[in-house]
Design a protein that fits this description.
- It holds the Pfam family Pkinase.
- Its EC number is 2.7.11.1.
- The chain has a six-stranded antiparallel sheet with strand order 1-2-3-4-6-5, covered by helices on one side. Strands 15-21-22-23 form a four-stranded antiparallel sheet, with no helix packed on it.
- It has eleven helices and 23 strands.
- The two termini are about 45 Å apart.
- The radius of gyration is 25 Å and the shape is elongated.
- It folds into three domains: about 90 residues, 2-Layer Sandwich (Phosphorylase Kinase, domain 1), CATH 3.30.200.20; about 220 residues, Orthogonal Bundle (Transferase(Phosphotransferase), domain 1), CATH 1.10.510.10; about 110 residues, no CATH class.
- By secondary structure, the protein is an alpha+beta fold.
């Protein structure tokens, strides 16, 4: 509860506007409390949103909040569509506006994801198609939602999908005699995880921004995490603007559609009507076809080239047309194709993007008013940073709230000159790649043939002549190093007891150690283990170096010191 807040904690039983009897509290947001109420005039259950009041709020601030709620009601009422929340009435209590809406009998998509986990691609596509149809109607009516996210999508038990909370929506004509924008100049309003690149940079927004937000919502629904979540607001905004969309691994036939919906440039995204058609096509794929596509639709993860790479993946492995070894393989279309001038130009673009974000977040009167849900706070652990096949690892840089060139996907030192033009073999992925490995590490009889002896010192490099491999982990201070974990992995204590999991993405590590136990995944095998804090809340546990990008079999990961 905010400081100075004057809540109606005894709201149960109150009669609002002379007809709406409060039965229970349904939720609470940044502007209002939502009550379940009984309409004593019409004898029906309704949802009533009441403006929250603050004893320390100035009169202009309260007036601004009141106008926001009035515009929310007008925006929702203007869109005549079964997929948009119906507004029944607007009233006032003690000078504060009330919005009386239909009561949807069912949870939000956010509730479902939190309680049941990620959804199947066809189910997510079906939900997305219905929301996109509602957005198309809203855009046709001149309304931009601006806050599409799982918490604002309600799933009625009848099968109806309802878009709600138009609290920060904008309209071409607000209908209140004013054309002023309630968002202050330079202020970012919305939920950070689902913010489109143009909004992250403070540029003009339009219907394409809602399309992006729904794309990000569906990505989170099937992949289990939002695509660009990082460790700070600044690094997250920079990732949204500059980094390619992490390769969807559990999305199957929905993956290519997500790529379309989340194109960096708004003009490259389909409009809401076309996006609905794309989603409907995925939702209508028969079960057998969907299962087959899900198995083969994601290209295997590309592994960075090092001095002792294992043999290449045979031609034809993975999805048809996916990037892989051999001439003529199509390159991933992630906004960073070979024609863009190579890593130097891409790095410059990332730095420019970071500078643009810095301008938006500068202290000179510019602020961030990012909306958060309870799920955001509960799931905002380590970010997922899975990448497009063939992209170099992206680092969250100085992980705790800073952004510099290490946020650049191309700044990873494992990119070595001309090697970029010839993709290295990928680590094969199973359909369940998002799940941690359950295979218990077996005691190791010693290094595999050709593994080589490990070098001493703190470099973590391999010995045996020639130059040492370039480091793939970067120091972030405090004795921590950021490394890229390419799939979720089980975590263990030093004596081999399994205790939790570490999710895929950019994670920090302390050091690495040869524990004398072997972990193997397909052709990758290692006796080295990296020390970290896992996503299950365990401190100073180990995951196998097998799951860290850039290392070789039976060798420590370059750039991570020995314990």
């Amino acid at each position: 509860m905010s400081s100075g807040e004057n809540e109606h904690t005894d709201g149960i039983g109150r009669l609002l506007a002379g007809r709406y009897r409060v039965v229970a509290q349904l939720g609470r947001g940044g502007m209002g409390i939502v009550w379940r109420a009984h309409d004593e005039v019409l004898g029906r259950e309704v949802a009533v949103k009441e403006l929250r009041t603050y004893t320390d709020a100035a009169a202009p601030e309260l007036a601004d909040l009141g106008r926001r709620m009035q515009r929310e009601a007008r925006a929702a009422a203007r869109v005549r569509h079964p997929g948009v929340i119906a507004v029944h009435d607007v009233a006032e209590v003690d000078g504060r506006p009330l919005i009386v809406m239909e009561l949807v009998d069912g949870p939000s998509l956010d509730d479902v994801l939190r309680e049941q986990g990620p959804r199947e691609p066809r189910e997510a596509a079906e939900i997305g198609a219905k929301v996109m149809d509602a957005l198309a109607a809203a855009h046709q009516a001149g309304v931009l939602h601006r806050d599409v996210k799982p918490g604002n999508i309600l799933l009625d038990r009848s099968g109806r999908v309802v878009l709600t909370d138009f609290g920060i929506a904008t309209m071409e004509d607000p209908g209140d005699g004013s054309t002023t924008h309630l968002t202050r100049s330079g202020e970012l309003v919305g939920s950070l995880d689902y913010l489109a690149p143009e909004r992250a940079q403070g540029h003009d927004f339009g219907p394409a921004s809602d399309v992006w937000a729904l794309g990000a919502t569906l990505y989170a629904a099937v992949e289990g995490t939002s695509p660009f979540r990082r460790t700070s607001t600044w690094s997250t905004l920079t990732a949204i603007v500059a980094e390619p969309l992490p390769e969807p691994r559990a999305s199957g036939p929905l993956g290519p559609v997500l790529q379309e919906l989340m194109q960096k440039q708004p003009q490259d995204r389909p409009d809401a009507d076309r996006a609905r058609e794309l989603l409907e096509a995925v939702a209508q794929i028969p079960d057998q076809d969907a299962a087959t596509t899900n198995l083969r639709g994601s290209a295997p993860k590309q592994r960075e080239a090092t001095e002792r790479s294992v043999p290449a993946v045979p031609p034809g492995f993975g999805a048809p047309g996916s990037a892989g070894p051999g001439p003529g393989a199509p390159q991933p279309q992630d906004g960073a194709t070979a024609s863009d001038g190579g890593p130097r130009r891409r790095k410059a673009r990332v730095l420019l993007a970071a500078a643009a974000v810095a301008v938006v977040l500068a202290a000179t009167g510019v602020s961030v008013a990012l909306l958060t849900d309870s799920d955001d706070s509960k799931t905002a652990g380590r970010p997922s940073a899975s990448r497009e096949a063939g992209d170099s690892p992206s680092s969250a840089g100085p992980s705790r709230g800073t952004v510099d060139a290490s946020d650049d996907p191309e700044s990873d030192p494992t990119q070595q000159g001309d090697q970029q033009s010839s993709p290295a073999p990928g680590k094969p992925e199973r359909p369940e790649a998002a799940e941690p490995t359950k295979k218990a590490p077996a005691p190791s009889p010693g290094p595999t043939e050709g593994g080589g002896a490990t070098g001493g010192g703190n470099s973590g490099g391999t010995s045996g002549g020639g130059s040492s491999p370039a480091p793939v982990c970067s120091p972030i201070g405090g004795g921590k190093y950021n490394c890229e974990v390419w799939r979720a992995a089980a975590s263990y204590t030093a004596d081999g007891a399994e205790v939790g999991i570490l999710k895929a993405g950019t994670n920090y590590f302390y050091c690495q150690q040869n524990l004398g136990r072997r972990e193997t995944y397909d052709e990758w095998t290692n006796i080295w283990w990296a020390k970290t804090d896992d996503d299950s809340g365990n401190k100073n546990v180990f995951i196998s170096d097998v799951y860290i990008e850039g290392g070789d079999n039976d060798a420590p990961v370059p750039g991570l010191p020995e314990c």
